[in-house]
Amino acid sequence: MISHIFGNLYETGLFTVKQRTTSGMKIAFYSSKGYDREYFEKINEDYGFEFNFFETRLNRYTVALAKGHDGICAFVNDKINENTLRVMDEEGIHVLALRCAGFNNVDLEAAEKYGITVLRVPAYSPSAVAEHALALILTLNRKVHKAYNRVREGNFSLERLTGFNINGKTIGVVGTGSIGQAFIRLMRGFDVKTVAYDPFPNEKLQQQGVEYKSLEDVLSVSDIISLHCPLTPDTYQLINKDTLAKIKPGAMLINTSRGKLINTEDTIEALKNKQLGNLGIDVYAEEEKLFFKDLSEMIIDDDKIARLMAFPNVLVTAHQGFLTREALEQIAKTTLQNLKDYRDGVNLPNQVSAAHFRSA
Ligand code: NAI
Q1: Are residues 328 and 240 both part of a single domain?
Q2: Count of structural domains, the chain
């Protein structure tokens, strides 16, 4: 039986939480897939939590499934708005463990209002996402996906498979945090010039030859632009009609961060008028209706993604940047350690809260 301490307010550094459980915890997993279950169950051998895996997304309606649980574990496309958080509070669930780095899908003000502690996995494997960005670049550039299909059908022609040397090109990195840095390290092997935009330039990168510039300058000089910043009000549709007009004509744009960094309609226009030479995306603005599902026998009623997929110079993957064995193991470890720290009432290094942003 799970016991709760009600009433007592814990003070943990900056943050106040309403209550903490004192024994084992029962956790409701939303948006869960086979690989989540596999890795979380394996790592849980060291933790002893009780899990219930739900395939459904978390939202104001499905949150009712978590009744009787002590915590919720959610993922990137779960909709954790005020309504969802209010029901969590009503059900006495005051911890939300995100098994991802981004937390743009959580209303942090509402979480604070209802005393819900939000935890995340800040950096589980920056290399996993950086390597996927590189996979998109190489596939798009050398048209490996097309060559694979051609050869399987006995078509050994090389017509229209011409790419370009990455060596000697200028690579623009928007956001030089953990993933941006991992990406820069990988690209160094191609002997490229690296320019970057980040409101907080990294001195070590500067010493290593990375040149920080304004966003406009990064866009205008780069042959390949890779987005590695979080989705915030400042970065929402960072790539739009105006910024697309500034990119070097024919440049390649890669987005493995969040779909809403890009205005899709404007990007389609830039592809049509050939301002944008290639687009590789692992994330899409309206992905919650599509990604992580098998819709192969369905009619896709999202005309924008259908248009994007119709371009020969666009490559779409369905948010798989994180999907490596190492990353899944680290995600499970950090998420369960976050929940253990919460249960044990110790410092919560991976907490995100509205207060955190106000004090930043
Ligand atoms: P991080 O927090 O280590 O780095 C983010 C960087 O972006 C920081 O240096 C920050 O100063 C910078 N930044 C903030 N506002 C900016 C702005 N307006 N313009 C340019 N840069 C700005 O985050 P990390 O771990 O590198 O992750 C980056 C993003 O990657 C996450 O927020 C998430 O959205 C995405 N991601 C995608 C995954 C996938 O599977 N495709 C998996 C994991 C993360």
Answers
A1: no
A2: 2
Q: Residue 238: in which H helix or E strand, if any? A: none
What pLDDT is attached to residue 358?
Answer: 57
Structure tokens at 40: 């979380």
pLDDT exceeds cutoff 60 at 20: no
- What amino acid positions are annotated as catalytic residues? 258, 287, 319
User: Ligand 1: residues within 6 Å at CB?
Assistant: 101-102, 123, 126, 129, 174-180, 197-200, 228-232, 234-235, 256-258, 282-283, 319, 321-322
Tell me whether residue 172 is in a domain: yes
- The band of 23, judged by pLDDT with boundaries at 50, 70 and 90, is low
Same domain (yes/no): 249, 345: no
Enumerate residues 6+ apart whose C-beta is below 8 A from 274: 249, 250
In a domain, 359, yes or no: no
Tell me the CA–centroid distance for residue 214 and ligand 1, in Å. Answer: 17
pTM of the entire predicted model:
0.88
Q: Is the pLDDT of residue 303 over 90?
A: yes
Q: In 10 A of CB 45, how many CB atoms?
A: 7
Distance CA 254, CA 269 (A): 17
Model confidence at 14: pLDDT above 50: no
Q: Ligand 1: which residue has its CA nearest to atom 23?
A: 177
Domain range for 117: 2-124+324-353
Flag whether 273 is in a domain: yes
DSSP 58: P
Q: Is residue 11 part of a domain?
A: yes
Q: 287 and 148 in one domain?
A: yes
Tokens matching residue 351: 């907490």
Res. 263: pLDDT tops 60 = yes
Q: What is the CATH number of the domain that holds 58?
A: 3.40.50.720
Query: What are the pLDDT digits (tens) for 122-148?
Result: 988 999 999 999 999 999 999 999 999
Whole-angstrom Cα distance, residue 325 to residue 277? Answer: 33
Give the residue, by CA position, lying nearest to ligand 1 atom 32. 230
Ligand 1 pocket test target in 36, 136, 179 with most atoms within 8 Å of CB = 179
Question: Does 7 or 264 have the greater pLDDT score?
Answer: 264
Q: Based on the domain organization, do 166 and 215 belong to the same domain?
A: yes
Report the distance separating Cα 62 and Cα 69, nearest Å.
Answer: 13
Residues 105 and 220 in one domain: no
Residue 5 CA to ligand 1 center (angstroms) comes to 36
